[in-house]
Write a structure and sequence with these properties.
Layout lengths: L1 H4 L1 H10 L2 H10 L3 H9 L1 H33 L6 H10 L1 H36 L4 H25 L2 H7 L4 H14 L1 H28 L15 H40 L40
Helix pairs in contact: 2-12, 3-5, 3-12, 4-5, 5-6, 5-7, 5-9, 5-12, 7-8, 9-10, 10-12, 11-12
Length: 307
């Protein structure tokens, strides 16, 4: 199974290229100011969190593009910081636009959830007493909205890989990801479960860090009195976990994506004839992915898509 077979090369890629850990740890540092602000006061924490959310929104496309390109190089050899910078710059606009589309989709589903909740609340108040059938209907509508959102994310999760590794434009990246997932449902489901477990682990570390850095200990006497040493230990543990899981996600997702691409092409997309112009067929294993400058075309221009 590709989802399991890709774990070993993903780990080997990180072992050969510890620079990946440095990059992911550096990006994890952007989260620490939020915890520090939270430790001072709730108001300071909210202000710092808002500011850092803006910073993350602006820098995430650059980070995503550069990290995926480095992970792709790390599969078969060594990678360098130059790859991170070049790919981050050349794919920035396309990834930013795609990210804004994701935010718009999430906002739509959030509004739907709010409307369902308000409708349910008004209906219960109008009835004067809890109506079991009505509550069940409202709950089902909310669950359907949540499932629809998760399904959408499940289908388009490889949009970034399509942009960076397959040179797709914004629209084509979503189409390519949907086609890839539909063709390999079982494999992608297994992959998503593994990635999900990693996300839960990282979430637990973030929750513990949030508790440790809280201005007032929410667990009372359960935790020892906080000190600078505990703050430092919590920060280091959080950074290390962020670096390890971030690097693993990058290399693992790229390994899975590269393995699934031939399957998706054979199942649906017409194969590219490399010999049409007299060129010899390209060897996939020895092929070097180009992360060239996209500045000469719009991210939504299909003429630049090769997926």
């Amino acid at each position: 199974m590709v989802a399991l077979q890709s774990i070993r090369p993903a780990v080997s890629s990180i072992a050969r290229n510890p620079l990946l850990l440095v990059i992911t740890a550096a990006y994890g540092l952007l989260q620490l100011p939020q915890f520090v602000g939270q430790s001072l006061s709730p108001l300071a924490g909210a202000a710092v969190s808002l500011a850092m959310t803006g910073v993350i929104l602006v820098t995430l496309p650059f980070y995503q593009g550069g990290l995926l390109a480095m992970a792709d190089e790390a599969r078969t050899g060594s990678t360098a910081l130059a790859t991170f910078i070049t790919a981050g710059k050349s794919n920035y606009l396309a990834l930013l636009l795609a990210y804004l589309v994701l935010i718009a989709v999430a906002t739509v589903f959030f509004i739907i959830g709010i409307v369902v909740a308000i409708f349910g609340g008004i209906s219960v108040l109008a009835a004067g007493e809890p109506n079991t059938a009505l509550l069940v209907i409202v709950g089902l509508l909310g669950a359907l909205a949540a499932l629809a959102y998760l399904l959408a994310i499940f289908l388009i999760q490889f949009y970034g890989h399509a942009i960076v590794l397959s040179d797709s434009d914004v629209i084509e990246s979503f189409r390519h990801s949907i086609s890839l997932v539909r063709t390999n449902l079982v494999t992608v489901l297994g992959y998503s479960i593994i990635i999900g477990v990693g996300g839960v682990v990282l979430g637990l570390f973030a929750s513990v860090a949030s508790i440790v850095f809280a201005p007032e200990n929410p667990l009372g006497s359960v935790l020892p009195e906080l000190s600078v040493a505990i703050f430092l230990v919590a920060g280091v543990v959080y950074l290390v976990s962020t670096a390890l899981l971030g690097a693993f996600y990058a290399t693992y997702s790229v390994c899975v994506y590269r393995e699934l691409e031939p399957t998706q092409t054979a199942a649906g997309d017409p194969p590219v004839d490399d010999t049409a112009a007299g060129d010899p067929p390209a060897d996939r294993d020895s092929d070097t992915t180009s992360f060239g400058d996209r500045s000469d075309r719009s991210p939504s221009d299909p003429a630049g898509s090769s997926s």
